[in-house]
Amino acid sequence: MTNVAGMLGLTTPRDAFFTSLAKFAIPARVVSSLDTYVEPPTPRTPGTFSENLGLTGPSHPPSLSERNMACLKVYISSSLFLAGSLGDSWFNVLETLQNADYVLTTKGAKPPSSKRNTVGPGAPSTPSRSVSSSGQPVPSSSPQGQQQSGARHPLLAELDADSLQHSVQRLFDASKNLDDSAFHDFVAALCKLSAVMVGMQSESESTETLAAESGSTEELPSSPSLALSVDAPHRRRVSGIHLARTLRSGDFGINKLGGVAKLNIHRLIYRNPEVAWDIITTHLLSVIKHTLAPPTIRVQAGRILDDILTVVPRNLSTTGDLQPKVQRRVLDVLAQQIIPDAQSSANATTIELRRMGLETLHQILQASGHTLIVGWETIFEMLGSVCRPANPLPPPPPPSSTDGGSTTSSPSTSRKPLPLGYINEKNYATLIKIAFQSLTLVCDSLSQLSPENLRLCISTLGQFGRQADTNIALTAAESLLWGVSDSIQAKRKEVENEPEYSALWMFLLLEILGLCTDARPEVRMGAIQTLFRTLQLYGATLSQDTWDECIWRITFPLLDSITASMRQSAGARDETEPALVDVDPQWDESKILALQSVGSIFHDFLTSKIMNLQSFPRAWEVFVGHVQSSWLNDARSISPPALRCLDKAVKALGSADAALKEETLTALENAWKACDTMGEALLDSRNAAAKDALRNPFTQDSLLAYVDVVRSIRAVTRQVQNKEWELERLKRLMVILKGVLTYSQSPDFRPDVDALSPVQAVVMDAIDDIDLSVPGVPSLVLRDLSEYATLPFIAAFDVPTANVGAGDALASSTSNGAKQTQARSPQKRVTYIGLAKKTMPLLVDLYLQFKENAGIYNDGTLEAIFSAYAIPIKLKYECPPASKFGKDQPLWKTATANFLRIVKECGSQIQKLGDTITDAQVEGIWRQIVETFRGGVLADCSAAESLPLEVQEAEESFDLALIAALEIDVIPYLGDVRVPDYIITQLSRVLQLGSRIHEVAEYQYRPPSPTSPGNKSPRLANEFEKMEVPGDGDVAEGTTEPGKFMSRERFSYWCFDLLFLICSDTAKDRIEARRRVATLALPALLDRGRATLTSFVADESLRGNLPFSRAREEELLYVLRKLLELRLWPGTLWAAFSDNPTGYSSKQPVINQNLNGSELIADAVKRSTKAHLFHFYHVLCEIVAIPRKTPSTWTTVSSLRSSSVDSSQASDLKGVLSWNSTASGEDKVVELDARTLVKECLKEIGEEMGVGR
């Protein structure tokens, strides 16, 4: 009847028949009994007391009888037969099927039984029972009995729960055969049923529980389908299910809706969305967003929706106009699941639904991403919705200049509203990871994206780059944005697309720039690397306008932003903070990387791109200003990279075209001004207080890089201008280099004993690079190098200890043992020894190169050189060791050897240059030469006494070079008329003191250094007043004390020899000069000889037969022999004691014949070549009158006379003990005593006077 009514279109009878069948198939009592049924507990014993009394409830759940099942089978068959015409009646049919499913599966939660002979999910294999009005089962006939009595009716076949459920499923499977209208009605009824049931279960939970779960007591607006819910009593009557205490694990309508949608997937794709798509997706979304619905129902709806959305793109044809429309529909629905509403609460269920949606998106992209035509903006919106806002960072300072302005919008101006919060970090991390996987897939399909979509992709990548997961942020900043850059550049090659994609690429750079100040160092470093790798790779293809934007909107703002972030990290109170010394070292590393990258960009593109910009002068000024600021204000670890950055740029200027010469010179001038300012800061820091200087000292690496920059600036300037810097600038350069060399606050000094430290080496290289052909430059370089040679002796210092202020606190808490250990640790010291060993020979080479340049004589340069050598020569054994691990020559030997090389050339050059050298400078040069020889001759050699004898002898022989140089290179030129008398006199005094054999009271003083004529006259006059004239003076008082003998006896005799030599007439060259020297040196010789002779006479009278020491006897004999051998220039003694020694040294006035006899004889004697013997006449008489045996010695002579030693014998004796004497021929050994020698001297006096003739 139901089928007939349906076929005839009789709606009312049809529905009435369906209602009757439904009541017979699923009695309301069965449904309500199932709801109140409680599973009995398992009994402990086979039988209990309560069971015997009949107090227990039914032991089996209520179930359907065979008749109920038969009616249900008919009901399903009729529904299947009339499926195409049911229309709105589908709701009642589906509600009945829902109740049947509820009963057959025990409240829809238990799986169907595998036994085919049961009539209910929990029924045993006993005869079926029907349910009475009281809800108690009643016995019914057994199927087995019916089979025995006769054949069963076909309607009674296959009445088990599984078969019925399969029948129900066939009904839903038949939906694919319905036409569009009937299918629409079917789906609408299914959604309506689901909405009613969801509404019932939503109201079953208390408002308080929902508020606690969702965090809000406000109910969000329900979907239209959920709004169809009727009041609770009606819902209970229609459904027959009481839900006061039962919360179902899933919804029947939603479950079946998913199956129907999959069976009709092509209908969803290719039919009008009004047929089924809109109603299905709208209902599922309404359930998902219904916060009062049970979580399981919402998750079920989300799973069904995701399954549908995943399958649709896979079955979509790639041809025709339908593809973009369907893709848009899919992504719009998925976006509603993923993107939270403004009022939605972020509970666990919501997070799970979003996670499921993101996984669905990932599956769609993975399977069908290559076919997507539209919806990319929706995808990026979904992915970006899971991102948290970045931590607030210091806003970047305004651009350094507005010259490079552009209309390109910044990524920060189009940010989406902040996403809602998350329950915990775990949920947030889960969503981020899933979303990032999808974003990675998107970046594999960049070629499909339009410019606007690429812009959204860049913004989304920027958002992920700011998320808490460092790995994700780093991948976004380094890898994915780099891939986007490649994609943009590939499309930019097309001429028509170049402007659009250039603007897009700039947008990409701005987004990366935002990540360059991220709080995490890994992300920062990755973003900076990506930014500059992109610029470096594609810089050659960029237009001038793009480069202008890159300079003013990327490069300089990056440095500004990092500096601002560093200041914020350091807690700087204001912009006047002097230095960022407390910054996190990782920020330092970021700025170092940025500076290095900027330097590479300038080096690679300066001449080809940047210098062609109209804003280049301003850009270069800002660039140099950043480097200067880093040197002055940043931590010292940043200074070297900053300077290396400038160095690269300066070197790049050298390859600029000739057309850019003016721009190049201007840039070099700005760079030098910055270096000058930095050098001034360095010089000022040397004078600062120790505490301030140690606060942020310049490191050796900083100084090294600084000198390299200066060298590059000078080299490129010389290359461009084809000439050296002006002298004034070179002077400033030398001042700065000296400041660098003597900077004493660095914490990282390198050893500089055996070799130059890196800073010293680069300073010397900078000096070597200077063109010495510029007038005045040789003197400038020589003066500074001579000062460098003195640094080991006047500027060496111990390296300052860091943490000076914390030293006291540390010492107070340190044990005594630790203190002793610290005290034993060697103090690091800067010695400049390697520098001195480098500069001393270099001074000689440079002097020999410019020895004919009168400038180095007139400006005091040569004096400075001699002064530098004088220090180590005078210190001698007090000089610091010349090497730590090697066996280098001592510093004083190095200085002596190089000093003598210059002296060898100096005298002849002064004479050659003549009047081009002023008299004052000639005086200064010779004064310094004599002073240097004074230091070498009179140096303290007491330390050598502890050396082995062979070493002492070698050291003494080395000093012989000083005496030889005096004889050969100094004495011949010292007699020049422009050399003042006091200098020659001073040299003679030096030799007088150097010839001492033993210490006596008379020689306990050292002659002062020669001074200018204005200061020397009183001193010299007093000295000459003390000198004795012949025949005057008394013999000194004697002593029996042996006295202290000098350690270097041979050297003393060499000095004595030279003193005799310069007073004699032996040399025949440069006679006038030599006669002048002899005249001025003779008083010193006479004093020295008189001291020896008079002290012997005085001591001998006291000692009696007590013998003298060997040294005293040899000294006496030596003096007597040398006096006997000495022949003066005629008139030398007369001139020496006159009022004008120099004037009368070569020619004396004629003898005044008006003098009386004795005066006439005395005047004539002083002009004699043997006048010195007359000077010692009295003391010689004292010696010859000594009654005891006088000192004697053995010597060799060529011939002997029977009576006495004549002049020829004296000639043979000449030089026996001299430093340059040699024995030759078949000489005989004879003994000579003092009395014999004195006799010979007296005989010489007699012969000179003509006595006996």
Q: Supply Rg.
A: 58 Å
Poorly predicted sequence stretches spanning 5 or more consecutive residues: 47-56, 108-150, 206-238, 242-247, 392-423, 572-581, 689-694, 803-824, 1001-1035, 1198-1225
Q: Estimate the helix proportion, in percent.
A: 55-70%
* Strand count: 8
Global mean pLDDT: 78
So what's the overall shape?
rod-shaped
Structural class: mainly alpha
For the record, give the distance between the C-alpha atoms at the N and C termini, rounded to a whole number: 191 Å
Question: What's the main sheet like?
Answer: 2 strands, antiparallel
Percent in strands:
under 5%
Give the helix tally: 53
For the largest sheet, list the strands in their spatial order: 1-2
Structure description:
The protein is an all-alpha fold. 61% of the residues lie in helices and 2% in strands. It is built from 53 helices and eight strands. The strands form four sheets. The chain has a two-stranded antiparallel ribbon with strand order 1-2. It is rod-shaped, with a radius of gyration of 58 Å.
